[in-house]
Structures are given as C-alpha cells and as structure tokens.
Specification:
Largest sheet: none
Number of helices: 10
Strand content: under 5%
Structural class: mainly alpha
Distance between the termini: 41 Å
Order of helices and strands: HHHHHHHHHH
Number of strands: 0
Shape: globular
Helix content: over 70%
Length: 237
Amino acid sequence: MVLLGTVINCVSIVIGTLFGMFLQRIPERVKTTVLQGIGLSVFILGIQMGLKSEQFILVILSLALGGILGELWGIDHKLNLLGKWLENKIGAKDEGTVAKGFVTATLIFVIGAMAILGALDSGLRNDHNILFTKSILDGFTSFVLATTLGVGVIFSAIPVFIYQGSLAIFATQIDKWIPPKLMELLIIEITATGGIMIIAIGLNMLGITKIRVANMLPSLLVVSLFVTVLYFWPILP
C-alpha cells in the first residue's frame, strides 16, 4: 500500500494532539518553556538542513523569488483564513489559537527532508520506514504543540496527507521522468531551502520574529526549477 506510511503519519499527529489536549491545563509558564524548547530545537534542525546546500546561491535566489510569489498569492493569509474558518466550525473560544496551531504545525510537519524522502521511498520502493520514523517524531511534536497551541494542531494532518500522499503516488512513476542524479540534487537543495524556512519557524516560536513563513513555500518549487535547469544546462561550476 503506497499510502501506508502517510496514513500512519497522519494518525500519529491526531493521536499526539489528542493526548496533548489533556495536558492543556498545565501552568502557563510551563507551556511557555515547553514552546521555547521546541522553538530552539526547530531552529537547530533548520540550521542542519540549511547547511546541506551545495549551491547556496540557488537557495538565496529561490527564497527571494519564492517569497515574492508567496506574497503575491497571499499563501500565509489564505492559510490563516482557513484556520479561522476551522475555528468558527468547531466553536473555539480563543480567537486565533486554532489558526496559529494549524499553520505552525503544518509548516513543521510538511517542510523537511523526511517528508520528501519518506514519501519518495513509499512510492518508489514501497518502503515506509522513513515515514514510520517521522510518525514517531511528529506524534511527539504534535503532543507538545497541542499543550501550548491547542486543537488547531490536529488539522495539520490534512495537508500532511495531501502533500506526502501526492508525492508518494507521483513517485510510483518518477523514475520514468527524473534521472537518479537529478533527484539527488533536488533533494539536497530542497532540503536546504526548507531548512531556512524551518529556522524562521523556530524564530517565530521563540517570539523573536513574525516571519510569514508560508509565503516562502513557493521557494521549494523555484529551487526545484533552478536545479533542473542547471542539471540539463550547467552554468555554475
């Protein structure tokens, strides 16, 4: 089953969130410390991912152009509107909490090498080990996030399913279209570009910045295009 790893990943997010909801009554200072701890961890993870780039100029250009596209398309605004719509549907008491939990968790779970590599492994080799590992990590992360950001975290399972599921299904045919070397280069630069966004998420969680990270998501498409063009028509050494 091509989507087994993705389904398990989504279930782990739901279960982790539900357990986290039971611990929402812990003192506010404890919640703050926990959220800061996650923010620091996410920040370090982003640095590790960002350093993997072999053509960092592509990452810079992709973030710049992708950011412009994201602002023009208003991705962050649309995600927040979706979060607020979910708030109204479930009758959330605290305005903005569902949207914040949904957007933050979605970006953490979707942006990253494990999401890409895991989905590709599921589609190419029917091997779900990477996504099983990601499920454990995401389950724990959703548990901790839910104690501070609330029920909005649970809805991040939906974009995770769509994103990873689509990649897994696409991967069943990917070897017919993309050479293995190009795929390796794509994963490296997409991981590095995503790492910069992960750093931004960490800074936001720490309250240092208010970066509209969702508006940078087109950067992943832009860097993929750059890498593909340079693979077939090399310009840089």
